[in-house]
Amino acid sequence: MPRPLKLGMVGGGQGAFIGAVHRTAARLDGQFELVAGALSGTPERALASGRELGLPDDRSYPTWEAMLDGELARPVGERIDAVSIVTPNHLHYPVARAFAAAGIHVICDKPLVHTGEQASDLLRVARQSGVVFAVTFNYTGYPLIRHARDMIAAGTLGEIRKVIVEYHQDWLATNLEAHGSKQADWRTDPARSGAAGAVGDIGSHAMNLAETVTGLHLDAICADLSTFVPGRRLDDDGSVLLRFAGGARGALLCSQVEVGEENNLNLRVYGTHGGLSWSQENPNRLEYTPLGGPRQVLTRGQAYLSPAAQAATRLPAGHPEAFLEAFANIYDGAAEAIRAKQEGRAPDPLRTCPTLEDGARGVHFIEKVVQSARSDQKWTDARWSAPDTDSD
Amino acid sequence: MPRPLKLGMVGGGQGAFIGAVHRTAARLDGQFELVAGALSGTPERALASGRELGLPDDRSYPTWEAMLDGELARPVGERIDAVSIVTPNHLHYPVARAFAAAGIHVICDKPLVHTGEQASDLLRVARQSGVVFAVTFNYTGYPLIRHARDMIAAGTLGEIRKVIVEYHQDWLATNLEAHGSKQADWRTDPARSGAAGAVGDIGSHAMNLAETVTGLHLDAICADLSTFVPGRRLDDDGSVLLRFAGGARGALLCSQVEVGEENNLNLRVYGTHGGLSWSQENPNRLEYTPLGGPRQVLTRGQAYLSPAAQAATRLPAGHPEAFLEAFANIYDGAAEAIRAKQEGRAPDPLRTCPTLEDGARGVHFIEKVVQSARSDQKWTDARWSAPDTDSD
Amino acid sequence: MPRPLKLGMVGGGQGAFIGAVHRTAARLDGQFELVAGALSGTPERALASGRELGLPDDRSYPTWEAMLDGELARPVGERIDAVSIVTPNHLHYPVARAFAAAGIHVICDKPLVHTGEQASDLLRVARQSGVVFAVTFNYTGYPLIRHARDMIAAGTLGEIRKVIVEYHQDWLATNLEAHGSKQADWRTDPARSGAAGAVGDIGSHAMNLAETVTGLHLDAICADLSTFVPGRRLDDDGSVLLRFAGGARGALLCSQVEVGEENNLNLRVYGTHGGLSWSQENPNRLEYTPLGGPRQVLTRGQAYLSPAAQAATRLPAGHPEAFLEAFANIYDGAAEAIRAKQEGRAPDPLRTCPTLEDGARGVHFIEKVVQSARSDQKWTDARWSAPDTDSD
Amino acid sequence: MPRPLKLGMVGGGQGAFIGAVHRTAARLDGQFELVAGALSGTPERALASGRELGLPDDRSYPTWEAMLDGELARPVGERIDAVSIVTPNHLHYPVARAFAAAGIHVICDKPLVHTGEQASDLLRVARQSGVVFAVTFNYTGYPLIRHARDMIAAGTLGEIRKVIVEYHQDWLATNLEAHGSKQADWRTDPARSGAAGAVGDIGSHAMNLAETVTGLHLDAICADLSTFVPGRRLDDDGSVLLRFAGGARGALLCSQVEVGEENNLNLRVYGTHGGLSWSQENPNRLEYTPLGGPRQVLTRGQAYLSPAAQAATRLPAGHPEAFLEAFANIYDGAAEAIRAKQEGRAPDPLRTCPTLEDGARGVHFIEKVVQSARSDQKWTDARWSAPDTDSD
């Protein structure tokens, strides 16, 4: 195994949840070593958080701008290879833009940014600087999701007819944001979270999962967004009818107020020759039914799975892997892309991660859902195409 | 147990599936005795079918009109108490109308009729004649569905926010109607099946289940219908966004082309205080999660269930009951309603069955889904109110 | 369908559970018609029970002896074809012996009798009179159990190595017999229940299921029986190590005091080429894993199942069948055996039922378990061979 | 978070499975830093393995003896705090003894050693030197296992009556050891694996799990061991009847030849007031049924769980944790014990790990199972008591 890549982190200090997940994912396979951070919005907390994590004080920066300057001041080879951005959503754009422009690879949490314009701008910047830019749609890191993607790409399901993707939670079933929950506070605040609530936080995950697995992209959508908890400023529930290019149809259901649901992301895909079903809460099994045959339960770790599924696996069948390993697979894909770039070679196609384009699609989806929800018109065009960055 | 009620049957002869289900359901508890039939559209097959079932030739009629005449010619007390109508859908209306008008109680399969006008007419006729008119939305016969209904009525879930109901099948995933399947042939024929395919056959079940359990009724819907199998004349897949009076929202998903799905009807209901989940393919369990507490798995046959759930149960917990028992519970409710009418008393409130109003709501729902699917407008008004039959 | 066979019943009057199950099973397919009964041990209750069930008073007998006399006094063709014996266990022997000796076919609940000697005597009597004698080991009536049996017989699992069969309940977790439960009272009374409690009531079911599915028979056993509820006179829990002829090994676990268990009978069979798993509480699925391949979930009603599994099926896949249908399949097998005997032909091999030999094996197993539980010796010979009735 | 503890590793070089698991578990929470190793039995492979893992060559030792000498030659504060022993079983004893005697804390894989005498000797040595000695019975690291233990300790289940623990695998269903599998080769070799095969490898896990959760210890056992694969030199399947001190009874079933089983370790415990069920392959749920109430599904991450369960949790409910996190919890418990020892304080009682006593119990269990399997006597005394090390 080569030396670990040097990683800096923006956000994720004391009291944050997702920062610790990123750090564990980065560390799990020894692909990254955390060497620098601007871990909090207040300099004191940033420093304290850095010490907790064992960062030397001179690389525990009070602001992300200071970190960018400080790292660029270091000689190449000592500075960070990549930055992880794990702040509330509204900071993704300025931070990502600055580091990408400076040639530092970026691993950014989702949703990518607040607007499609910001996303297009990032695409331009990243293409110009040539950095790797990964977006942590972490659920695509599950080995059986990669197997599902490979089955569909190989035509095992025939022509895809129907895609149902759901993401159900209940943690916002009550007015947590009024009772001191930091997580709930920023996620229900349009200024920090963006134009959508549940749809932005989890609907975008669901859509990315569906598109990644099926390889299909949206044509049009019809959305109904709700805010069930009185006083909340963003949607906490949404249902979206989906029409895909090529004729497949489907539905995306998401909610953060459904009592009894923990983190129930699940995907069903039906084609002319077979059907698939997967659920994140029990991620080591993938159900596949060929037309006319019995349902099969494919399990992680088995030799009959695709090479990409096997490459994303650490443990034998029956020794369950879960959320952190899937997240680590995203970091592994980012590490491989970064090393390939550094070494001037093509990356191993079995080790992948969601890209900036995936992130931009997610932002576009959120915008279109919000637009559709406000419209009396049934169908809202949801096609996305990458900005023509060559002409810039 | 009182003597069995005398039952006639229209349809359900050789080669039919649902006729045998009705007969078994009627016989299971000894509430009904099949004594007459017009079992097929062709007189020879009708007679042969009658003999197979042990009917005397003189009560195995060549047509339903002959059966009506023949039975009315018998003295009260010997003639049939009720008729079961298990023909293809297009015959429900004339047969039901004639028997109801003649004062014979009716048990009719679903969907009730083809149009809202027909449904309103039946309501008028039935009210005038005073007959019991049951519609076999059989899935509401499951004991745990009755418990779910009772929990919600008692306020255990608080205010209902979200209702997700799904009905997934795969039996029409290929073009069966072109390959000699009698079932597929009539169900995909607008003249016999009605204006909708999957939505009429199974979507109406799903909607009835959701309304029965929650006690909520629709305000507006937004539907997308698809026909995936080339050459098919009716929808074989549908997704519908739901808005209920009072503010609850939801989605109804149904399909008959999803490979790997057998008869996957399931319902999830979420309120401010708890959530419920039930699946028809494993009907002896109902999952209930109170806000903040662990999920509970309620099982049929247990003493903690509601009186109506217990009244609908024949076997102890762990000795599974299933489809036929649930269907028989509908017949049991019809028998109780008929006997109560005959005896001039109120029926036992624990023994119920879907009514003509439920059937009319189902017809209305189908019409509105078809209308919405053809509309560019997002929301289609789906409110239903019973016709003012007094003024007729 | 031919005319129903005429059935008499001994036991199963007011307050009994299993009598109603037998009657429903007999009626479900219209194979039997209940025409006579000696339904209770007390003449008044017998008569009242008969009236409840619609029996004419002259065929509602005060005692089983009166029923036997009364029915024999009727002309052949009017008398009962068969008798169902659904009394507490201690009456099985005298009643079954008398009816079998008189040439009336017998359907008897399990465990068959109290002792191996009684079982051997019944075998002699039944062979001499030539009657059909079915024992309602009802769990072998499940279609997927028949499919499992057929898979193993066809060699799909290779050589069987391991058999694990379990039957867990909790209804006797407390001292019900001291608190007015009629069921608990006789089942925990050695005089009426026999030498074993849980092992007799449910362990014998488990053993029969394992032997029926695998076709294997026991060589030796090692048993530990427990009585957990203070004051109880029979075992309420048992664990048995199994060694089968031919080298397979296994375990049988049964209990009636395991809180949270309803009627959890399950079977796992492992061979050199594959493994099978089935659970009674969700009986419409059978899991099968071929060596090196993914687990398959076989479901009732599918065309890929064996002819016997399909013959035992009434409803399409996804429309669950359950306990009563499986029980009715036993009655259907008995009906077929009786008609074949009456018509002088071989019975349809797809329609079977457990035989008197199966019943005798069950009695032998119970005796041996009790013997082993009392022994300091590890292994107790458990081989059974049919008595040489020819020489009698 | 304090600085990571310095860890050395013996075994776990190229081609080994469990070494990587230990390293990931040690690294997951940043509690340990791997700084030294004697990773393979051959010096070349040891060095190559060390380089792969980024060890400096001067701390990648050719033998464990060299590592012990080399580390002891370093000043306190720079030498390793602890050694992980992940070799084949036969090396556990000499390595563990030497490091423990030298005052280096030990984390040793299971089964601990080959004989009870070796175990007693280790106990003596460890007590004299005062080192922390953890044994990686990793399945006790699952948060819901700790909750189950706490529920039982709190009396929620009442008096324990029955314990069923199973561990089913299929990876040795064929003669892998004859076809180049390094894992299979040593695990089926008595010289390296010990006196038992399946019972030693997985039966000991199962027994430890049952004893840890229930707090009960064995009185007597009755075992049947089998070797199904021709030519194999150790058992590959075992069934054991269990009698616990205090009156509880149970069964332990384990096998490595059951086709279709991956790593199916599961535990059921029944008491007078409730029952529990847990399965390792879906470890984020624990089923609990109180007497007379519905089954509850307790899920990892919820606030209603015990403090120890919560302390062992990294992610919110619905974000599944799995095998590696549970394994890391063992390392966390060891880290806490080591730090407490270093700091002269009592360890946090919420952060625990299996001890040398647990390891010794496991060895004793294996010995007794082998003895019982060879005996014609039904019950074999299986009580264990710690050697009286004070008098040594």
Automatic annotation (TrEMBL), chains A, B, C, D:
<dbReference type="InterPro" id="IPR051317">
    <property type="entry name" value="Gfo/Idh/MocA_oxidoreduct"/>
</dbReference>
<dbReference type="Pfam" id="PF22725">
    <property type="entry name" value="GFO_IDH_MocA_C3"/>
</dbReference>
<protein>
    <submittedName>
        <fullName>Oxidoreductase</fullName>
    </submittedName>
</protein>
<dbReference type="InterPro" id="IPR055170">
    <property type="entry name" value="GFO_IDH_MocA-like_dom"/>
</dbReference>
<dbReference type="InterPro" id="IPR000683">
    <property type="entry name" value="Gfo/Idh/MocA-like_OxRdtase_N"/>
</dbReference>
<feature type="domain" description="Gfo/Idh/MocA-like oxidoreductase N-terminal">
    <location>
        <begin position="6"/>
        <end position="137"/>
    </location>
</feature>
<feature type="domain" description="GFO/IDH/MocA-like oxidoreductase">
    <location>
        <begin position="145"/>
        <end position="276"/>
    </location>
</feature>
<dbReference type="InterPro" id="IPR036291">
    <property type="entry name" value="NAD(P)-bd_dom_sf"/>
</dbReference>
<dbReference type="Pfam" id="PF01408">
    <property type="entry name" value="GFO_IDH_MocA"/>
</dbReference>
